[in-house]
């Protein structure tokens, strides 16, 4: 009997991980779409303070997976880590509905995220037999799940929060997390059996060693992504503030809600991923597979170009028509698809046996550092002109591209040396 398949010809287990991730991301991005507006409009925080809180929260949400990945690999197993982490996150989202619990709620979500986040994508490789070519596209398919949730979140949570009350939006985010947990529990029969037990129980070797060359490569990739994210993560922070005051949001006889623009990025991921997969597959068939670091460098350059567009628009002066913001998101999303799924897949594929969740957690260390840096960079928004600020973001993305290009050249040189030995 042939293996049942779904979602771009992938195993059904990927569909379960895809949908679980989709609703978890709905909860995360639903809360994030409201967060900076909630702080500045409801809690009356100064912009700089709100930027620091935003950056610190998003950084912590990606720092806790470093510890959570180790706990999943060594103690709980991926399945129990996901169930426990998702339950904690749901509680945190519901706590956001109560203003006095604001900071404890943020901490609760970050703690739950630490157990949940690395344990889900680290199950992807276990769905495939060794050498299965489909695994190379699986992470892009999985990434679509991130963005379906991210697309729905501003439209549902953002609209509820903006029009009916902030706490309605936060409550909807909590319901989304509960839905993701229900899907994961229902789909257990399609998921890898090894996810039920800690890796140390499955490994015959007393100690798992991480190859030095692999560790150095992933560290260099992580540093580059940290620089990139200090610019990229402004989308939910300073770019969101600019959409509120610097963009003419009139369309016909109504005004487009500011949170809706945050749905553009995930919507474009869904629209652009299938043709990009076809393009990359056709190139692979012709023997023109882009090396990971070079592919990621291309993405960083495109994102830098997106911020250059905003700098040019600010240089013209006056409010910017919302169509230009749409074009910005088209460029930003194209660059994102080249760099972020590629990096996640690289970390997951290079993970030694028994360290799957731990290695994926290391990918989120770069996200943690980049989000923290983004919060610090965001404090410059109210201290400089908007045009100069967007130029700075373009420069940071360009710097990340240079770092990735240098890494690609070093990898090429090392490969040639190995071949000559």
From TrEMBL:
Domain Major facilitator superfamily (MFS) profile: 13-412
Matching InterPro entries: Dipep/tripep_permease (IPR005279), MFS_dom (IPR020846), MFS_trans_sf (IPR036259), MFS_Transporters (IPR050171), POT_fam (IPR000109), PTR2_symporter_CS (IPR018456)
The keyword Transport appears for this protein: yes
Matches recorded under PROSITE patterns: MFS (PS50850), PTR2_1 (PS01022), PTR2_2 (PS01023)
UniProt main location, coarse: membrane
Signal peptide positions on this chain: none
Localization: Cell membrane; Membrane
Membrane topology: Multi-pass membrane protein
Family designation: Belongs to the major facilitator superfamily. Proton-dependent oligopeptide transporter (POT/PTR) (TC 2.A.17) family.
Annotated protein name in UniProt: Peptide MFS transporter
Organism: Sphingomonas molluscorum
């Amino acid at each position: 009997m042939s293996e049942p398949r779904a979602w771009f010809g992938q195993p059904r287990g990927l569909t379960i991980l895809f949908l679980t991730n989709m609703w978890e991301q709905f909860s995360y991005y639903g809360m994030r779409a409201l967060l900076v507006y909630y702080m500045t409009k409801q809690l009356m925080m100064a912009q700089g303070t709100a930027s620091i809180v935003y950056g610190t929260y998003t950084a912590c949400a990606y720092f806790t997976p470093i510890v959570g990945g180790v706990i999943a690999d060594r103690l709980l197993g991926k399945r129990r880590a996901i169930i426990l982490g998702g339950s904690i996150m749901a509680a945190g989202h519901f706590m956001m509905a109560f203003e006095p619990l604001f900071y404890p709620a943020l901490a609760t979500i970050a703690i739950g995220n630490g157990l949940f986040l690395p344990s889900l994508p680290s199950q992807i490789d276990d769905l495939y037999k060794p050498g299965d070519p489909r695994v190379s596209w699986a992470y892009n398919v999985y990434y679509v799940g991130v963005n379906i949730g991210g697309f729905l979140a501003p439209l549902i949570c953002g609209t509820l929060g903006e029009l009916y009350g902030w706490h309605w939006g936060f409550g909807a985010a909590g319901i989304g997390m509960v839905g993701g947990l229900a899907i994961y529990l229902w789909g257990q029969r399609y998921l890898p059996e090894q996810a039920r037990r800690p890796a140390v129980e499955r490994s015959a070797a007393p100690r798992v060693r991480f190859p030095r060359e692999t560790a150095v490569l992933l560290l260099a990739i992580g540093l580059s992504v940290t620089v990139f994210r200090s610019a990229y993560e402004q989308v939910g922070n300073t770019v969101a503030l600019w959409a509120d005051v610097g963009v003419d949001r009139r369309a016909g006889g109504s005004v487009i809600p500011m949170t809706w623009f945050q749905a553009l990025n995930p919507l474009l991921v869904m629209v652009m991923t299938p043709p990009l997969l076809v393009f990359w597959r056709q190139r692979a068939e012709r023997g023109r597979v882009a090396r990971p670091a070079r592919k990621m460098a291309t993405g960083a350059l495109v994102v830098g170009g997106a911020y250059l567009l905003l700098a040019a628009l600010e240089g013209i002066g006056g409010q910017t028509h919302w169509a230009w913001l749409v074009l910005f998101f088209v460029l930003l999303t194209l660059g994102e698809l080249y760099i972020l799924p590629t990096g996640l897949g690289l970390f997951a594929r290079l993970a030694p046996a028994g360290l799957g969740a731990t290695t994926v957690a290391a990918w989120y260390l770069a996200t943690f550092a980049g989000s923290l840096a983004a919060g610090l960079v965001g404090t410059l928004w109210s201290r400089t002109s908007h045009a100069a600020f967007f130029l700075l973001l373009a420069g940071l993305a360009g710097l990340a591209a240079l770092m990735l290009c240098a890494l690609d050249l070093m990898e090429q040189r090392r490969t040639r040396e190995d071949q000559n030995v």
